[in-house]
Structures are given as structure tokens and as C-alpha cells.
Write a structure and sequence with these properties.
By secondary structure, this protein is α/β, with parallel strands linked by helices. The chain has 2 domains: 6-322, Thiolase/Chalcone synthase (Peroxisomal Thiolase, Chain A, domain 1); 327-379. The chain has 13 helices and 12 strands. The protein has helices at residues 10-14, 21-28, 42-56, 81-89, 105-118, 142-145, 189-194, 206-227, 245-255, 266-269, 276-286, 326-359, 367-378, and strands spanning 6-9, 32-35, 66-70, 95-99, 124-132, 150-158, 165-173, 181-182, 203-204, 235-240, 295-302, 306-313. The strands form 4 sheets. A 4-stranded mixed β-sheet has the order 4-3-5-6, sandwiched between helices. Helix 4 links the parallel strand 3 (66-70) and strand 4 (95-99). Helix 3 packs across helix 4. The protein is globular. The relative contact order is 0.15. Bound molecules: coenzyme A. Residues 19, 23-24, 27-28, 103, 142-143, 146-147, 204, 206-207, 209-210, 243-244, 271, 302 line the site of coenzyme A.
Length: 379
């Protein structure tokens, strides 16, 4: 995972809006969140997380065939943040796209990548959840701006003939609740005609979202467990979307599961939307709470409304042919990142210089090819 440098505590927040640490902590469990500075962006945080995941998986960028970035705060409406990261990584054999499913996006992304691997279409993918929520918060609305933070998390997925990995998933949406939380953008009537919401600023009906989250969490976890032919007793830990500790407590009660089995990072990071599950997964791994062959559950929910539950058997064995040692792979990864940077710069220079040459009257490209294209057009 990757975090911005700057921390914003609840006391700092009280200097921005009329609130206090006691209110925020008792209603949500949050004590602080990380906030991106001018130089930290959704792509730069996502890139940092992706590089760490590749190092952890002992994988080279050119082995990656698909990059999915789950985000509600992309760098652009298009091109995708995933394409930017693909170029920076030098993942030259990878397709790349952004996925919009709000706070459920990371689990949706894992499901998409898993299906692509299972179909045989690809063997290796990176799924990233990355957000700079601070840029879309309405910093005058104390009921929303206190909840969110920035950060990124990433995982590398690889095909294996061994049983394990993603065992089941349940993806759902209820569009009737599309107005309960969101961020209007250029295509929206809310901006063009109604003026109901501020452009690019988040609005939310907290109470309704709270009710929705507590209702679907237990239900969808049970559906995913049924599909995987497991029960809640088989689960080592649940890695939920980190919205609010009260939501997690309520889900634990519904499932009759010891609350300590729910990984919570709400206190340190707040709600980092699509990044919250991979960040919580990372913390759980660092704390040694997930071991090989453990069954774990992801549960995401958020705008859409969307929700997604997934059962995973951790640490499936990989079918890797004998590879050169990790030091050599690390060295090759460094070279790949360096080359990627220069490769992109060189390509841009060549593109620009070919435009200048064309302006100056030089014909660039293969004459024969140009003639063939013209002939085809004439016909
Ligand atoms: N500090 C102090 N007071 C605040 C406040 C803040 N940051 N935000 C709201 N209040 C006030 C309200 O103005 C209201 O005052 P009033 O009674 O005088 O009108 C009072 O606190 C209660 O507000 P309410 O909205 O009913 O609080 P709540 O108990 O429902 O808690 C949330 C609000 C947002 C914490 C809660 O609804 C929630 O967590 N919802 C889920 C949100 C979420 O997780 N969204 C993301 C999902 S992906």
C-alpha cells in the first residue's frame, strides 16, 4: 500500500469545520486520515502501491497483462489512470482500464481480473485501488469531509492450476439508490440543469447509506460463503470496506462473528473508498493475521449503490517455472522502471519532432504505405 505524507487528525479537522474529536471518534471510529499534497495524485499513489506489490510477488512489469485501477477520483475522465500507471511501470504487454464501482470497486476489479485469468486469456494482472478523496470533498460539509482519506493499495494476481485463490464472489448493484452518495461530473443533469449538487464535490445521505451498509454486509457475505461451500466458521478474517466502525460492529453482530475477526483500519486511515480493502489487507498481512490456506472474505459497499462480497483461499501455490533469484529480478525491475521513463520521453520527443518536420514540409513515414492507404481510400 501507499500513503500520502501528510496526516490530518480530528483536532486538525476541528480547525476547518465545526466538529470535534469526541464526535468523530464516537460516531465513526476515525482518529486521523492521510491527505495528499499537491504532488501526490491518484496515479502516483497507485504506482507506488503497484511497484510494492510487484516486488512482493517477485514479478516483472512485462509479465503483467492487465492493469485495473478501481477509483472514484481518476486523474482524468479519460484517459484512464490505469494507462498512466501502465506507462510508468513499463508494463508493455498489459491492457489497462479504470473501473468505477465506488467503494466496491476493488472487489469488482479482483473479480474481473480473476475471470480473465480463469478464461485463459491472461495469466498475470495487477488490481489497484487508489483514491485522492480529499480533492472531491466539500470541505464546508462537516457530515462528509470528516469521513474520508487518501491512499492506495494493490495486489498482483497470477494463474495457478492448484485449488485456491478466489473461490466465489457476489457482485450487486441497486441503482434506485444512485442519489444517496456521489460526485456529479460533466455528463450529469444535476450539474447542467438542476444545480442540485456542486460539480466534482461529494454529496451523501449518511443515515440511508448507514442503513444500506448494515443490511447488505451480513447477507452478501453469507451468499458468497454459500457459493464457496463454506460457513462463517471456516473464515479466518473478514477484510471489509473501511467506512465506519459502527457498521463493522453491526455486521459482526448479524453474522454472530467475533468482532476481532473484522480487520479495521478506520482509526488510522478513515474511509479511503476503493483503496480501503487492499490497504486493510496489507495491514492484516503485516500483522501476521493471514496465513497460507486461510479463508478470508472481502466485503465492499458504496455508491451506486453497489456491493461485492468475495471468498478467497489465501496463498495458492503458483505454477512458476524455475526463476532466477529475487535479487536478479529486483535488478531487472529497476531497469524496467528506468527504461519505461526514458521510453515514454523518447516517444513523446519523436512524436513532437515528427510533427515539426511535417510542418516544415518533410514527409515522415513510409511513402509506400502512405500511397497504399490513399489508393484504398480512393477505391
Ligand atoms: N461534527 C459534529 N456534529 C456533526 C457532524 C460533525 N462532523 N456531522 C453532523 N453533525 C451533527 C448534525 O448536524 C446533527 O445535528 P442536529 O441533531 O443538531 O441536527 C447531529 O450531528 C446528528 O447528525 P446525523 O447525521 O444524524 O448523525 P449520525 O449519527 O447519522 O452520524 C454519520 C453521521 C455520517 C457519521 C453516519 O450517518 C454514517 O456513518 N453514515 C454512513 C456514511 C458512510 O459510511 N459513507 C460511506 C459509505 S461508502
Amino acid at each position: 500500500m501507499a500513503l500520502p505524507e501528510q496526516v490530518l487528525t480530528n483536532d486538525d479537522m476541528a480547525a476547518i469545520v465545526d466538529t470535534n474529536d469526541e464526535w468523530i471518534h464516537s460516531r465513526t471510529g476515525i482518529r486521523q486520515r492521510y491527505i495528499a499534497n499537491d504532488k501526490e495524485t491518484t496515479a502516483s499513489l497507485g504506482l507506488m502501491a503497484a511497484k510494492k506489490a510487484l516486488a512482493q510477488a517477485n514479478t516483472l512489469p512485462n509479465e503483467v497483462q492487465l492493469i485495473i485501477v478501481a477509483t472514484s477520483t481518476p486523474e482524468n475522465i479519460f484517459p484512464s489512470t490505469a494507462s498512466l500507471i501502465q506507462g510508468w511501470l513499463g508494463a508493455n504487454r498489459a491492457g489497462a482500464f479504470d473501473l468505477s464501482a465506488a467503494c466496491s470497486g476493488f472487489v469488482y476489479g479482483i473479480d474481473m481480473a480473476t475471470q480473465a485469468i480463469r478464461s485463459g486469456s491472461i495469466n498475470t494482472a495487477i488490481v489497484i485501488g487508489s483514491e485522492t478523496m480529499s480533492r472531491i470533498l466539500d470541505w464546508q460539509d462537516r457530515s462528509t469531509c470528516i469521513l474520508f482519506g487518501d491512499g492506495a493499495g494493490a495486489v498482483v494476481l497470477q494463474g495457478s492450476s492448484e485449488y485456491g485463490g478466489v473461490l466465489s464472489s457476489v457482485l450487486r448493484s441497486d441503482g434506485s439508490g444512485y442519489d444517496l452518495l456521489g460526485v456529479p461530473s460533466v455528463g450529469s443533469v444535476d450539474i447542467a440543469y438542476n444545480n442540485d449538487h456542486k460539480p466534482y464535490k461529494m454529496h451523501m445521505n449518511g443515515r440511508e447509506v448507514f442503513r444500506f451498509a448494515t443490511r447488505i454486509m451480513g447477507e452478501s457475505i453469507e451468499q458468497a460463503l454459500d457459493k464457496a461451500e463454506l460457513t462463517i466458521e471456516d473464515v479466518t478474517v473478514v477484510v471489509p470496506h473501511q467506512a465506519n466502525n459502527r457498521i463493522l460492529e453491526s455486521a459482526a453482530r448479524n453474522l454472530k462473528l467475533d468482532e476481532s475477526k473484522f480487520i479495521s483500519t478506520v482509526e488510522q486511515f478513515g474511509n479511503t473508498s476503493a483503496a480501503s480493502i487492499p490497504m486493510a489487507l496489507c495491514v492484516a498481512l503485516e500483522q501476521g493475521r493471514i496465513k497460507d490456506d486461510d479463508n478470508i472474505v472481502f466485503i465492499g459497499f458504496g455508491g451506486g449503490l453497489t456491493w461485492a462480497a468475495m471468498v478467497i483461499q489465501w496463498g495458492a501455490k503458483l505454477d512458476q517455472e524455475s526463476r532466477s533469484g529475487p535479487i536478479f529480478i529486483r535488478f531487472r525491475r529497476r531497469i524496467a522502471y528506468l527504461l519505461a521513463r526514458w521510453h515514454a520521453r523518447l516517444k513523446r520527443i519523436l512524436r513532437r519532432s515528427s510533427n515539426w518536420l511535417a510542418v516544415l514540409g518533410f514527409r515522415v513515414g513510409n511513402d509506400k504505405e502512405i500511397r497504399l492507404k490513399t489508393d484504398r481510400h480512393d477505391r
